[in-house]
Each structure stands twice: as structure tokens, then as C-alpha cells.
Amino acid sequence: MQSGDEWVKRDAAVVWHGFTQMAAYLDNSPLVVERAEGRELIDVDGKRYFDAISSLWVTTLGHRVPELDEAVVSQLGRVAHSTMLGNGNRVVIELAEALADRVPVDGAHVLFASDGAAAVEQALKIAFQYWVNLGVSGRTTYLALGGAYHGDTVGSLSLGAGGFGTDLFDPLRFPVLRGPGYDDPHWADGVIELVWAHASSLAAVVMEPLVQGAAGMHMTTPDDVARVAAAVQEAGVLLVCDEVATGFGRTGTLFAVEQCGVRPDLLVLGKGITGGYLPMSATVASQRVFDAFLGDDLGPRTLYHGHSYGGNALAAAVALRHLQLIDEWDVLANVRARSSQLRSLLAARLPGRRVRVCGLLAGIDVASGAAGRRVCAAAVARGVLLRPLGPVIVLVPPLTTTADELERVVDVLAEALAEVVEA
pLDDT (tens digit, 9 = 90+) per residue, 193-229? Predict the structure, then answer.
């Protein structure tokens, strides 16, 4: 049986890891996961790690959930995939119906994709063509926020505020109107001013409601999100809410915009939609947006866009069961209880350190990106998997995390910070 070190060498010989400098890969003690149980990952050496990043924020209920496993197996007995381009699939229809009943979008219509960035691209194209289909000229600009992150395809990268080495791709990015981000206490006023000044040229305003996760867990209030949304819609501009990170219970409600009383024209979903089981995302359009694309068969109003695996049946089956389990297990109540506990634990164990919490999304500031790497490495050595965002330690535990598990995570984080004294 091969050791973890041997597996890492095999990995480095053939795999190119995203957001990873491969020349330093072997030096950073990467894990090679073999299996999982509950909320723990188990590496090839048999060591367990509590998954405090929810495997990049996607694993909501934990790993190897029997009900979700069964949903996949059951669908395998029917069909794994059939194209949604011009045809339908029973389980995909059932998922779309279930989502339409729950999303805060009027007359929801769901266009599926495979990841959050692709769903953002869909929203961009829909918003652009919406105005063309209505015969309105000049609506070609997007307003996005400072600190924004919407993915790493070229369109979604253009919406983003940069960072993560993306400045290299500036020649490929299209220009957007950039408002202030959530790190500015007056961000809402600044965005509203821009909306009214540029309304006639804006196709859409794109924002991450409540939390800008990749920016370092910058957070805002529901009231400010509501104020901006009201101004956008009053100005006659489309509102796109990117809930790839915040959707499916992460902030304590099924969708973050519910806390804001906002009903966007386009809602972007991803990450937690399948509970972390299979790649899937969605762009949900309101009835009025959808209606603008109705016209002659093969005519110019058609949205000529679609992906080979958009609306994959296996993903749809597990996503449908996942949505049901959120209700059956009262997951949202657990998120709210654990969120309150997390605030208290961080205040008690990390006095004086700047922390931010919304639902089960948390950011803890450290001195530098290098310190963040060392703190997370110290936590991993203690059996808690963490990953920094530059000088911010992020906690994104599964939504079913127990009170005892949360205490363990915060205890380990406190120990890791104490070990890396310069953090």
C-alpha cells in the first residue's frame, strides 16, 4: 500500500491544480483524500480532517449522506444524462419546479450549467440580449462592486475586481462600471449614485448579496442591499444577484436575498446546489426577462447558448433530494444556532482579533498571506482542514456541523494562531 508522500508525487506528476503554484506543490504538504465519513475527510494514510471549508464551500450536509447517495444510485437506474438542448428530462423538470417554488424570483425559469462562473456568464449574456430583444440600444455596460468575485472565466473575471493574479488578463477583460465594495461603509450610497448617473447605459447591476466571500469575507447589512436593489429596479436596470456562495442556506436563509426582501431579475446559483456531490449551477430568470426571448422559431430572439452537461440528470436528482433534506432536517435552524455559537466562540477565544460572521461564513484577519498559509497548515496538522484567502482565514463548515464540532474547529484555530505568533 502506497504512502501519502508517494501519492503526492504521483499527483504532482500528472495533475495541474487550480490556484496552485505547482513548483511549490510538494513543499506545501497537500492532502490526498481517499474517502470521507460525515463531515470528515480521510487521506490515503488514514488520517481524518474535519472539513471546515466544506470542500471549497460546496459540501452542505456532509460527505456520504445516505439519502443523497441513494438519489444518485436511483437515478443511475434510469439515465445518467440526456441533453437539455431542445429536449427535456423528467428529474430536471422536477428540480426546476422545486427551485421555482423556492427562489425569490417572480415567474422563475431555470437555465442550468455546470459551475458558478458559467452561470454568471449566462446571466451576462441574458442581460445583454434582453435589451437587444426589446429594441433598446446602448444598454451594454455592467455595474459591479469593488471587491467583487464572480468566477474565473473571461466574462465573470471582467465583473470581478481583480486579485488572485488576474491582472495579467486585463487585456482580455471588458470594462465595467466599478462601484465601492462592502469594505466601504458608504458603499450603498456610492453604488446608488452610479446607478442613477449611468442608468441609460446599464444592462445590469451585478452583486453578491450580504457577503463578498472571495474578497476576504466582507459583509454588509440587509438594509443596504435592499436600498441598492430598490434603486436599481426603480432606475429600470436589471438586477443580477450572484448567490453561488451564499445560496442554499449558507447565510441562515435558503437564499441571502430573502433577508433583504429583494427579488432580483436574475439569480445565479451554484456551489451548494447539489450538496457538494456533482457539478451543477443555474441561472434563474424572472418571467419578464424570459418573455423577452420569446419569438419565431430559430429567430433572433432565441438565446443561442447552452452547455453539453447543462441539466445533467444525476446532478439534478441529487440536487432535488438535497433541497428536500434542507427542509426535512431543519438545516436552516441549525445554521442560525451554529452561527450564533460561532460568534460567541470567536469572541471568547480570539479577543481583539477582527472577525466577521454571517451564517456559517466567517473570516478572521491575520497579518499577511504568508501567515494565513502557516496558520492553516498548523490547523491541518491538528486535523482541521482550513484554507486562507490571502491574509484572511475563512471558516465555512458544513451546514449540519454540530456544537461540539464547532468548538473543536475554533479550539484548533486558536491553537494554530498561537503557534504562528506573528499572525
Answer: 999 999 999 999 999 999 999 999 999 999 999 999 9
What residues are paired with 333 via a beta bridge?
none
Terminal C-alpha separation, the chain: 38
What is the Cα–Cα distance from 343 to 355, expressed in whole angstroms? 9
Instruction: State which H helix or E strand residue 284 sits in.
Output: strand 281-285
- Write down how long the chain is: 423
Q: Could you tell me the three cell numbers for 45?
A: 494514510
The CATH number assigned to the domain holding 374 equals 3.90.1150.10
Residues 210 and 78 in one domain: yes
The amino acid at residue 106 is D
Confirm whether pTM is higher than 0.85.
yes
- Which has the closest alpha carbon to 272: 282, 263, 285, 264? 282
Contacts of 275 (CB under 8 A, 6+ apart): 58, 59, 60, 61, 65, 68, 318, 319, 322, 325
Q: What is the largest CA-CA distance in the chain?
A: 67
95 in any annotated domain: yes
Query: Rounded to an integer, what distance in angstroms lies between the CA atom of residue 385 and that of residue 152?
Result: 24
Q: Which of 185, 247, 225, 213 is nearest to 361 (CA)?
A: 213
- Please list, in sequence order, all residues whose beta carbon lies within 8 angstroms of the beta carbon of residue 221, skipping any fewer than 6 positions away: none
* In-domain check, residue 22: no
C-alpha distances out from residue 282 to 20, 80, 116, Å? 27, 19, 8
Domain enclosing residue 274, as ranges: 69-328
How far is residue 252's CA from residue 57's CA, in Å, rounded to a whole number? 15
Could you give the angle at which helices 403-419 and 331-349 cross, rounded to 10 degrees? 30
Cell (9 digits) for 322: 438535497
- Residue 284: beta bridge partners? 110, 267
Cα-based distances in Å from 258 to 104, 140, 150, 264, 266 = 7, 29, 20, 10, 14
pLDDT of residue 314: 98
CA dist., res. 216 & res. 211, Å (int) = 9
Residues of the chain short of pLDDT 50, as ranges, are none
52 and 74 inside one domain: no
Could you tell me if 203 and 141 are in contact, meaning their C-beta atoms sit under 8 angstroms apart?
yes
51 & 90 share domain: no
